[in-house]
Amino acid sequence: MTERLHAVTLVVDMPITKIDALDVIAFAADGGVDDARTSHPRVWLAPHAWAEVEIPKFADPPPFAIDVYSDASGEIAWAQARRLHTALERLGWTVEPPRAGAQ
């Protein structure tokens, strides 16, 4: 049985490393970075919802994507993406509004 993930993407147009972006997301979400030393670090935003960061490869310029996932529902993914969007803008980031991501 495969797990269905619901995804919402936030796009940020600024130069930053993946770990620094995750640290800021963790600060905004009042949490921490899980699996920081792996290929798939994440920040838990709520039960059944987490954020992952996709940085362009091969020194491509920004933007980068913050993918907010939920294994429970699209509504949870959307709610947590909107919450994270607001929190990051309060910290001074310019973030595009949430949009549906890959599933």
Notes on the protein architecture:
By secondary structure, the chain is an alpha+beta fold. The protein has one domain (6-100): TATA-Binding Protein (2-Layer Sandwich), CATH 3.30.310.180. It contains two helices and six strands; from the N terminus they run βαββββαβ. The protein has helices at residues 18-28, 74-90, and strands at residues 6-12, 33-34, 42-46, 49-54, 64-70, 99-100. It has a six-stranded antiparallel β-sheet. Strand 3 (42-46) and strand 4 form a beta hairpin. The radius of gyration is 13 Å and the shape is globular. The mean pLDDT is 91.
Offer a few descriptive terms.
103 residues; alpha+beta; TATA-Binding Protein; 6-stranded antiparallel beta sheet; 6 strands; 28% strand; globular
What is shown here, in short?
The chain has helices at 18-28, 74-90; strands spanning 6-12, 33-34, 42-46, 49-54, 64-70, 99-100. The protein is of the alpha+beta class and 103 residues long.
Topology overview:
Layout: E1 6-12, H1 18-28, E2 33-34, E3 42-46, E4 49-54, E5 64-70, H2 74-90, E6 99-100
Antiparallel strand pairs: 1-5, 1-6, 2-3, 3-4, 4-5
Overall CATH class:
Alpha Beta
Q: Beta-sheet strand percentage?
A: 25-35%
Q: What's the helical proportion of residues?
A: 25-40%
**CATH A-level architecture:** 2-Layer Sandwich
**Order of strands in the sheet with the most strands?**
2-3-4-5-1-6
Order of helices and strands: EHEEEEHE
Give the total of domains. Answer: 1
CATH topology: TATA-Binding Protein
Name the average pLDDT: 91
Q: What spatial form do the alpha-carbon principal axes imply?
A: globular
Structural classification: alpha+beta
Q: Are there runs of 5+ residues with pLDDT below 50, and where?
A: none
Give the helix tally.
2
User: Assembly state here?
Assistant: single chain
Count of strand segments: 6
Instruction: Give the N-terminus to C-terminus distance in angstroms.
Output: 16 Å
Major sheet details:
6 strands, antiparallel
Q: C-alpha Rg, in Å? A: 13 Å
